[in-house]
Amino acid sequence: MRWSLGRGRRQGRALPEVPEPPSPPVTPGTTTFGPVAGRYLASTSAGQWLDRISAHGLGVASRADLLVRSDGILITRDEGSALYLPAECLRKVRLDRSLGGNVYEVDGVVVITWRNGARLLDTGFRAVAPAQHLPIQTAVLPMVARATASAPAGGSTHGGAR
Question: What is the pTM of this model?
């Protein structure tokens, strides 16, 4: 536990590329899919399934509900604050078998890649009913397509720590 607390302090204070995640908008978008009950696994550096991000509670696994909305993805966690992934920050969605040091069956995890400040993160969600993974991916794909088509090359859509 000491290791992860130290890591969280280093990532949150010393590394400006791990800003606090954005807050959900006051006026929520229209629900397009969900809610889906499951488990928030963690957020890691994109492409690095073992590099769990501890800053801002992003490394804390918890029971959660995932809701796909027109303005982004809202993950309401039992442990920690809600995690909001704005639609314009989404970069990829895939089904995988591992994240945050945990390994599951093939397509056992929905992994959403998104931009938080200057850093790309992979966020993992595992539905109680694995049959929900493909519909989640299908619901998120149009937002990813819009976001990647309008994203500035190498630019950031979420402006950093507040």
Answer: 0.83
DSSP E strands: which ranges in the chain?
Answer: 31-45, 62-69, 72-77, 83-86, 90-96, 98-99, 102-103, 109-116, 119-127
Taking the chain (162 residues) in runs of 10, the rounded mean pLDDT of each run is: 46 61 91 97 93 91 97 93 96 95 94 94 97 98 94 52 32
**R_g (Cα) of the chain, nearest Å:** 15
| 25 belongs to a structural domain | no
> What's 53's domain CATH number?
2.30.29.30
Is residue 155 a part of any domain in this protein? no
Cα four-point dihedral sign 81, 82, 88, 90:
positive
- For residue 41, give its domain range: 2-19+30-150
What is the domain count for the chain? 1
